Amino acid sequence: MFTIIGGDGKEYGPVPASQINAWISNGRANLQTKAKKHGENEAWKTLGDFPEFSPDAVVPPPPLANEAASLPVPIGPRAAANDLLAHAPRLNIGACLSRGWDLWMNHFGRLLLAYLIFIPISVALAFLQVGSLPIATMLFGGVFTAGMYRYTLKLLHGEPTAVTDLFAGFSEAPGALILAGMAIAFFIMTFALLTAAGFLFCIVPALYFGIAWTFTYPLILEKKLSFFPAMEVSRRVITRNWWRMLVLMLAASLLSLIGITALFIGIILTLPISLCVLACAYDSLFNPKNSR
Prior knowledge:
2 domains; 292 residues; Dna Ligase, domain 1; 4 strands; mainly alpha
């Protein structure tokens, strides 16, 4: 595994030698690019100093799709977002709705079980307030939301699931998820208060960021990003698809709200549709090879 310094002066990696060779092939790096072997404390060298990148070296085959999906995202939110935007197609609203519906239909029982656990926790968190601030939701809402995405994405990919997936955020990335939840809540509440105070123009940034940060929590848990890079990567990638995301979220919410006609039981049965659709949108934008 190697880390390099790109032409923009930022670090990228650690990634395997096969990825570096791919970057060399497409002109993103060359034998004069500064590099360091992961786990070694030696000074920066050039790629040409490593035998893996000499002109006579045997180039290993590119990583498999599953391996590539598990590799760390390049360091730096802008570079990570640009890399994703270069490979991900425009968000297909119809495909996300179709995949989300199929996911809900095919795994109805498991999704219902997850929501029967998730909803009481969400309600309990909402009642734990400090003054008028929903402090418990701000602290732990993102942790549970990330767990719901983990559970739903595993179902989408045909992987084994367990109830413990719903609580994965507490063991894998509690700090980043809590910080992200606090930061997002702070910004959205600030815009909301300014709007209530008469600054109606604050509705626009509140709506923009509220949608743009939609995938912050799964990015933290699935891509192992810290809280601010996850927020920024989500914002940059969604910005290119912002209007599509808005339409998709409205359509997903409409499908879920159909359950209101059947009172509370109907709501419980249809709420998972919205998350299924959003999970498919996340998969399309951040795991484009899986959604082809």
